[in-house]
Amino acid sequence: MATGKHPKPTPAKKTEAVPHTKTPAVLEEPLSAPYEQTDPPDVEQLGKSTWTLLHLIAATYPEEPTSKEQADLKQFVKLFGNFYPCWFCAEDFRGYVQTNEPDTTTQDKFGKWLCNAHNEVNVKLGKPKFDCDLWKKRWKDGWE
Q1: How far is CA 59 from CA 45, 53, 133, in A?
Q2: How far is CA 34 from each of CA 13, 15, 40, 56, rounded to the nearest angstrom?
Q3: pLDDT, tens digit, for every residue of 64-114?
Q4: pTM of the model as a whole
Q5: How many independent structural domains does the chain possess?
Q6: Helix (H, G, I), strand (E, B) or coil at 59
Q7: The domain that contains 128 carries what CATH number?
Q8: Region (Disordered) spans which residues (predicted)?
Q9: What is the DSSP string of 31-57?
Q10: Is 117 inside any structural domain?
Q11: How confident is the model at residue 142 (pLDDT cuts 50, 70, 90)?
Q12: For residue 2, is it within any domain?
């Protein structure tokens, strides 16, 4: 039956919660309601979140990575510097990577390389250096 018109879609109905499950919040209220309205992160917030992500990538990187994993991580680091949202920071990071190629041969070597990169930034910001021999305690194993 081709009338040239498409049937009007019927609105989705709210479903009752099944025992031991919760009705998704999206159905109960507008998506934006539970979120605080905040401005985009500033450079300091961005930096802190970024270093957390990068250090956790190092902490979960294989102890003995394959040659493909090593190449992939090097490529990630390079691309990361190309797309980082703070242009000044990105330029600085790319310069560091050019003069200090990422050592992706083991988890520990990459973790220390990343720690040294972070320390370069800390020095520029007037912050203390972190002891890179302790990077796994801070980002992987935890303090005793």
Answers
A1: 21, 10, 13
A2: 21, 20, 17, 28
A3: 999 999 999 999 999 999 999 999 999 999 999 999 999 999 999 999 999
A4: 0.75
A5: 1
A6: helix
A7: 1.20.120.310
A8: 1-42
A9: TTTTS---PPP-HHHHHHHHHHHHHHH
A10: yes
A11: very high
A12: no
**DSSP string of 22-36, one letter each residue:** ---HHHHS-TTTTS-
Burial class (CB in 10 A: 0-12, 13-18, 19+), 118: buried
Asked whether residue 4 is domain-assigned, the answer is no
Exposure of 24 by Cβ count < 10 A (0-12 exposed, 13-18 middle, 19+ buried)?
A: exposed
Kindly state whether residue 124 falls inside one of the protein's structural domains.
yes
- pLDDT on residue 33: 60
Spatial distance between the Cα atoms of 76 and 28, rounded to a whole number of angstroms: 40
pLDDT at 35: 75
> DSSP 3-state helix, strand, coil percentages of the chain (rounded to 5)?
55, 0, 45
Burial label for 119, CB within 10 Å (0-12, 13-18, 19+), is middle
User: Residue type for 73, please?
Assistant: L
Q: What is the pLDDT of residues 15-73, one digit of tens each?
A: 444 444 444 545 555 556 677 888 999 999 999 999 999 999 999 999 999 999 999 99
Q: 53: domain range?
A: 43-141
DSSP code at position 93? H
